[in-house]
Structure formats: C-alpha cells, structure tokens
Amino acid sequence: MDEHYDAIILGTGLTECVLSALLSVDGKKVLHMDKNAYYGGDGASLNLTQLYEKFRPEKNLQQILDVIVIMR
Length: 72
Prior knowledge:
CATH architecture: 3-Layer(bba) Sandwich
CATH topology: FAD/NAD(P)-binding domain
CATH superfamily: FAD/NAD(P)-binding domain
GO molecular function, one term: Rab GDP-dissociation inhibitor activity
Radius of gyration: 21 Å
Strand content: 5-15%
Largest sheet: 2 strands, parallel
Number of strands: 2
Family: Belongs to the Rab GDI family.
Strand order of the largest sheet: 1-2
Number of domains: 1
Organism: Dendrobium chrysotoxum
Helix content: 40-55%
InterPro entries: FAD/NAD-bd_sf, GDP_dissociation_inhibitor
Structural class: alpha+beta
Shape: elongated
CATH class: Alpha Beta
Protein name: Rab GDP dissociation inhibitor
Number of helices: 3
C-alpha cells in the first residue's frame, strides 16, 4: 500500500463519500477507510426487509385514494 496520500478520509457516510469523490475528481490521491465491515455509515443501517417496512405504502392506501376521487 502506498504511504503518501493527499487526503485520508475516515468513514463512509454520505459526507465522507462526497468529499472523497470530489478530491479524487480533482486529481488528489485519497485513502478512504471505514472501521465497519460494510459501506455507507448510518445510511446502511437498514436491511431490505426493514427498508420495505419503513417505506411501503400505507395499508389503507385504497381508502385514501377513494376519498381523493370522491373529493374531485
């Protein structure tokens, strides 16, 4: 592994990833590391099942749509 870097970024959250990308595009040599075994920091805290449960449509979505149609 090289020993010279223009920047060392610790963490793989959104801010760190954007900073790393901007520096890299600017031609800087960047070492980007994280203490976790996964990528994404807090943004990677949901598995697929949890993501679906959090963002699935409401169970009563059809009732809501019926009310909207009646109001038109």
